[in-house]
Amino acid sequence: MFHRMDSPTPFDSDAPVGSKRAIIRYNPDNSAELEMVEATWGSNPRFSDGTSYRFVRSEGKTFPSHRCLMPATEFHMTVKDRRYRVRLDDGNFFYLAGVWEPPMAGYPLAFRIITVAANAEVSRYQDRHGAIILRRQVMQWLSKTDLLETPPARIFVVDEIPNGPRQPALVL
Q: Are 62 and 146 contacting, i.e. CB atoms less than 8 angstroms apart?
């Protein structure tokens, strides 16, 4: 089993490709065991014409394997020269749905965030955001239940982040 995550961190969608984050997934060597491992954000560029993709759209996809979760307290977004933080209105932490890729061709274990159409609060700023998995939905998502939908209105609080130094990429 994995240890409970008591202090998830903010997720910055502007963090550079290659940033490291903790993900939760089923252990590929023991499918009954959950594990928390460090992974690189972004797909292997050798297999996509030199581009590393950090996001994957949910529409038309089912993600039957390699599902993972990234714990977060909030996510950040940038619109023009302003930055915003988005958090759940109840203050709880949540997970972003993702898919992981095994290490290959010298590239480390990697993950991408799955996106959905933005909900009412976020759509004023951008048209998509990471798929939100609530704490009570963790096992459903990892056990292949489809939970990829736009969250209802009034679930998020959006606040502007005052100008100042940006949070560096997180390394665990």
A: yes
